[in-house]
Specification:
Blueprint: E1 5-11, H1 15-26, E2 34-41, H2 47-52, E3 59-63, H3 68-77, E4 83-88, E5 92-93, H4 97-107, E6 111-121, H5 142-147, E7 160-163, H6 164-170, H7 182-188, E8 194-206, H8 219-242, H9 255-265, H10 269-280, H11 288-320
Parallel strand pairs: 1-2, 1-4, 2-3, 6-8
Antiparallel strand pairs: 4-7, 5-8, 6-7
Helix pairs in contact: 7-8, 8-9, 9-10, 10-11
Length: 324
Amino acid sequence: MPPSISVVINNYNYGTYLGSAIESALGQDYDGIVQTIVVDDGSTDHSRQVLSQYAGRITAVLKENGGQASALNAGVRASSGDILCFLDADDWWAPGKLTSVVAEFRSDPRCSLVYHRLQPVRADGTPTLKPIPRTLCRGDLQRRLERSAGWWPFPMTSAVAVRRAAWEAAGDIPETFRISADAWLVGIYPFLGRVAASPDSLGFYRLHQNHWYRETDDAAMLQRRMAHWASTVEATNTFLAHRGGTGRLSIDDHLPYQVARARLQGADLRACVRLTLKGLTFGGEPNHLRRARDVARALAAFRAGALMEREARAGADRARAGHP
């Protein structure tokens, strides 16, 4: 018998896109049992009218707003599948997604998490950028995560599937993850088993200005990222402590955090050299060329920030001197 699958779709005010997500789950070519659960997390738009159109074809869970982790936890509690696949309501899947995920799980009984690439698209569904993540990581990732404070070229929620046994071992996602609850899945499950990755783009990731993955970042987004990374490291350390292990993560090993802080606070020549060396040896990104590219981009961002700061100071000096 093929393993049963529970698809958990979390939705909050994405009624415009929700139907496409549901249709992509119902339209899978998998020949085993598939249970589709849609959790509406207190939407105030027309999402619940959309759900009513699928009565009898899905299990709808209607709840007050509690955030993404709360919604995913509620969906899993209502599920029964051997494998749990997660889908954000503004994304959608290719028809062969579930068949591919099951094949990956069957190929490695010790695997706790399976993922694949996603094709980023604009709000209207037009493809943009290259499939993400670019680098794929497989096997036992525990040592890599310990060296990088949990950062790796991780997948987004709509690309993640886990074994129910692993979910039960990890427990519910802490509801402090009101957004980006996938940080718990990709940060904790590599400590529970092996990871498998498919190189195919089996889903579509819709870019919004409120998303982490964007074409450009501003200071507010960098600050949000830093706070999120710090809280994720803290949550991971709490989990590791409860399991009785001795290993702990340190935010000092989290290169993207350190780069974001330098971009916000500025970096002198010595700091740039230090970050460059750290970037070239960073364990989170296994691809050496992409590691060097990321370092070059960070340095370019530092230079651009320094130039803007000098121009702003010069402009302020001219204004004080009464010159245009």
